[in-house]
């Protein structure tokens, strides 16, 4: 898990998912036509058109966005809140969860215990004492590194960062807040199983990528399928399966840019190999004002094949194959553009690896 248990970084805290909100870093909205069926007096079924529902995807870019929106999302809940979090040390979020429970919302929380039990114990104790049944995550996984908040079984925030307020002002992270019903149902089904400690094979909805189920294959498919460009940020770069795929992409002519925080040259040998293969690597010092905690890949930006992956998955074998993790893949031009803008800015500000 590299430095995640040392410097777990920030929550991407988020913007409220509301129509016409100007507080977000970007949103893509699609009107989805709905049809229902009624039965006439004669017994014949006939379709009846109903008003379209808006499926909305909102990108939140940290650290610029701030955290009021994630608190607002908790505050907006009327029936349920389900939170899976690798690390929770944000007392404002904890108090908001307890306040939701006090007003009658069913609030459930899963916290990692394999790597973050000591840091999570205060939140675990407080929440359980204040009407929020909080469970330690299953030891089936090497770690539960997922960061997801789902409200009222209808809206979910898929995050790359943790609810750790000490890092909010310095960590690059992203969140996608969305209400695609297939995604939300899949997330809620996995939450229910993980909360109960029962086995489950997750389904992907329309956009999801799960560890340990299919994260490695989906991330490799994005890298191996790129034809023009790859822009990458991650906190870890120690998995040869991924680094080899990035090297091979550069060798076949893809412009590959990698931006990371360099923590005591932990990945120096990987950076050397990537650079030798033609990958453009830029880094930030661990002491810099910006810490690259995001896990994001933008492939073939500016083409009809453009795709982005963002979420909790790091480039390690454990993260992709042994942890509970969740990511989000989309071809939404607005989400892609927003993430690409941040990655391009970070790359421009980094120091070329040599």
From TrEMBL:
Gene3D superfamilies given in the database record: Endonuclease Chain A
SUPFAM superfamilies reported for this sequence: Phospholipase D/nuclease
PROSITE patterns listed in its UniProt record: PLD
Ranges of residues in domain PLD phosphodiesterase: 140-167
Keywords: Hydrolase, Lipid degradation, Lipid metabolism, Signal
Enzyme Commission numbers on file: 3.1.4.4
InterPro entries in UniProt: PLD-like_dom, PLD_domain, PLipase_D/transphosphatidylase
Record GO terms (molecular function): phospholipase D activity; RNA endonuclease activity producing 5'-phosphomonoesters, hydrolytic mechanism
BP GO terms, sorted: lipid catabolic process; phosphorus metabolic process
Signal sequence segment: 1-30
Catalysed reactions, semicolon-separated: a 1,2-diacyl-sn-glycero-3-phosphocholine + H2O = a 1,2-diacyl-sn-glycero-3-phosphate + choline + H(+)
Name of the top EC class for this enzyme: hydrolase
PANTHER family in UniProt: CARDIOLIPIN HYDROLASE, MITOCHONDRIAL CARDIOLIPIN HYDROLASE
Family, as annotated: Belongs to the phospholipase D family.
Record-given protein name: phospholipase D
């Amino acid at each position: 898990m590299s430095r995640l248990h040392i410097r777990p970084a920030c929550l991407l805290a988020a913007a409220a998912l509301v129509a016409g909100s100007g507080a977000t870093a970007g949103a893509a909205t699609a009107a989805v036509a709905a049809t229902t069926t009624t039965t006439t007096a004669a017994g014949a079924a006939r379709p009846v058109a109903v008003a379209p529902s808006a499926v909305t995807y909102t990108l939140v870019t940290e650290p610029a966005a701030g955290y009021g929106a994630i608190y607002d999302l908790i505050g907006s809940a009327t029936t349920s809140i389900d939170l899976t979090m690798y690390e929770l040390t944000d007392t404002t979020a904890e108090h908001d969860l307890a306040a939701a429970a006090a007003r009658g919302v069913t609030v459930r929380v899963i916290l990692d215990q394999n790597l973050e039990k000591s840091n999570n114990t205060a939140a675990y104790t407080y929440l359980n004492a204040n009407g929020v049944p909080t469970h330690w995550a299953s030891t089936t996984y090497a770690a539960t590194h997922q960061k997801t908040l789902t409200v009222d079984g209808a809206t979910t925030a898929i995050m790359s960062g943790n609810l750790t307020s000490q890092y909010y002002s310095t960590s690059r992270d992203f969140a996608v807040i969305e209400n695609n019903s297939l995604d939300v149902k899949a997330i809620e089904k996995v939450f229910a199983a993980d909360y109960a400690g029962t086995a489950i094979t997750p389904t992907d909805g329309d956009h999801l990528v799960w560890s340990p189920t299919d994260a490695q294959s989906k991330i490799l498919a994005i890298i191996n399928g790129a034809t023009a460009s790859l822009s990458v940020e991650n906190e870890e770069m120690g998995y040869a399966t991924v680094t080899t795929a990035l090297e091979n992409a550069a060798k076949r002519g893809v412009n590959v840019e990698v931006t990371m925080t360099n923590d005591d040259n932990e990945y120096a040998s990987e950076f050397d190999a990537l650079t030798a293969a033609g990958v453009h690597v830029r880094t930030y010092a661990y002491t810099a004002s910006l810490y690259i905690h995001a896990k994001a890949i933008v492939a073939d930006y500016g083409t009809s094949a453009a795709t982005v992956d963002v979420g909790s998955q790091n480039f390690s074998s454990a993260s992709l194959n042994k942890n509970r993790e969740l990511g989000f893949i989309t071809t939404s031009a607005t989400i892609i553009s927003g993430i690409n803008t941040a990655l391009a800015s970070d790359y421009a500000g980094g120091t070329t690896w040599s």
